[in-house]
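RECORD TYPE: inverse folding
INPUT: structure tokens
STRUCTURE:
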């Protein structure tokens, strides 16, 4: 029991960057410049993993009667009760756990939530902005820093007039009526009290450049701490993993026949031209997909033969999806599609910061319903880079069970396989060539460049 607890503790050493997500809350009266300040933060950071989340997305769906009131400018959107706090809290909690969430889209023209949603996943910093961003105690408990914007009421009114008339299709009389009846009383009764819970109060709202720069510096420090933490995670794993006995290892390697050794000799030969490189890499890719097919789960299927008789055979027990790690997995896509013509494809792009060595999710497009499928994750190499590790974590965060994931790569380092198997012991790894980092021959090649000839 003690050994099991120790292993579990060591496994928790590793967390992807999006499991250490930071929340910044920006509240203030309507028209104080919350969205503008949020955009300034994103622009200053110049990072793809900083996301603005508007509280407006979490307005409750309206009944028919409430919609009629809204079109007459008689529905109070500036009351805390208009916000779906339970949904907002559950979404933030799921993001904190590193999971994919669906964000509702609210239409101010229709005064209702739209049927479609937007997907949010992989952010390191989320800026939550809205008049009540600091109102709910549960939401406040998740915030790492809170900001309240104080702005002159006349300035707020002029900005609200411009926004509601030009962007939300309102008329000036309706906006003024709503402001006097709902907006101003809401500020006095609810919005202003949020300043009691804030870390930073910014007088003059978005016009206070000094205070905004303070907020930006805080976020930059947070990102720096995250990068250091991720490096420490990886370093700790690389030291611990080799010392663990009986590490579970679901490894399938291409049988090293004289033919395979001859192909490897061609691939590592500096004199081999691009056409031959493509031909032999494609040949190895086909062999790897055959091995991956043997690792899939099949079930019996009864079919009717041409002569009318029935025959009992096999077919895949689950639908198959292929996910390519952009920048390397494309070299195996042709082999995958040739083996399984009906496979649905997805892509992920993980970039590693050359200074901090921290990977970040730049792009993902995964097939709908991927959680209930078998997934073949393809990349050219499983070596010192953490892109395959990150991509595997993304699949798990999207609900794909570890045992349903098969990683297919041309070449793997023994050390990297052990690290990945330690974190994901039920994942199957299919590889053509197995090397150590010190003795690497294939692992030192840029297979994408040699495959595409550029």
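DESIGNED SEQUENCE:
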């Amino acid at each position: 029991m003690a050994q099991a607890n120790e292993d579990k503790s060591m496994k928790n050493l590793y967390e992807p960057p999006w499991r250490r997500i930071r929340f910044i809350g920006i509240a203030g009266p309507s028209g104080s410049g919350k969205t503008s300040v949020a955009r300034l933060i994103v622009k200053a950071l110049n990072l793809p993993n900083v996301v603005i989340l508007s509280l407006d997305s979490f307005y409750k769906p309206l009944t028919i009667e409430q919609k009629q009131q809204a079109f007459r400018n008689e529905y109070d959107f500036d009351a805390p009760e208009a916000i779906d706090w339970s949904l907002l809290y559950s979404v933030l909690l799921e993001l904190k756990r590193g999971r994919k969430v669906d964000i509702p889209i609210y239409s101010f023209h229709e005064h209702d939530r739209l049927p479609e949603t937007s997907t949010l996943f992989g952010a390191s910093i989320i800026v939550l902005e809205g008049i009540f961003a600091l109102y709910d105690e549960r939401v406040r408990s998740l915030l790492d820093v809170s900001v309240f914007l104080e702005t002159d009421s006349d300035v707020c009114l002029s900005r609200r007039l411009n926004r509601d008339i030009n962007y939300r299709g309102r008329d000036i009389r309706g906006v003024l009526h709503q402001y006097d009846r709902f907006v101003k009383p809401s500020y006095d009764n609810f919005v202003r009290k949020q300043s009691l819970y804030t870390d930073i109060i910014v007088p003059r709202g978005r016009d206070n450049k000094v205070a905004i720069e303070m907020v930006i510096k805080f976020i930059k420090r947070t990102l720096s701490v995250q990068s250091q933490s991720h490096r420490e995670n990886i370093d700790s794993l690389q030291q611990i993993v080799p010392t663990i006995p009986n590490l579970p290892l679901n490894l399938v390697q291409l049988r090293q026949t004289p033919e395979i050794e001859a192909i490897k000799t061609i691939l590592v030969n500096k004199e081999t031209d691009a056409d031959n490189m493509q031909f032999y890499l494609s040949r190895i890719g086909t062999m790897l997909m055959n091995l991956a097919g043997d690792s899939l789960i099949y079930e019996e299927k009864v079919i009717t033969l041409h002569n009318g008789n029935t025959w009992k055979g096999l077919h895949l027990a689950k639908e198959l999806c292929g996910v390519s790690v952009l920048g390397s997995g494309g070299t195996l896509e042709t082999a995958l599609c040739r083996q399984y013509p009906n496979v649905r494809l997805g892509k992920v792009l993980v970039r590693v910061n050359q200074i901090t060595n921290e990977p970040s999710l730049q792009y993902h497009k995964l097939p709908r319903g991927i959680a209930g499928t078998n997934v073949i994750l393809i990349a050219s190499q499983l070596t010192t880079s953490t892109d395959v590790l990150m991509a595997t974590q993304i699949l798990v965060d999207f609900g794909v069970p570890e045992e349903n994931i098969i990683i297919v790569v041309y070449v793997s380092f023994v050390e990297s396989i052990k690290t990945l198997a330690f974190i994901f012991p039920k994942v199957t790894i299919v590889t053509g060539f197995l090397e150590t980092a010190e003795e690497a021959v294939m692992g030192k090649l840029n297979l994408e460049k040699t495959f595409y000839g550029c």
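NOTES: The two ends are 54 Å apart (CA to CA).
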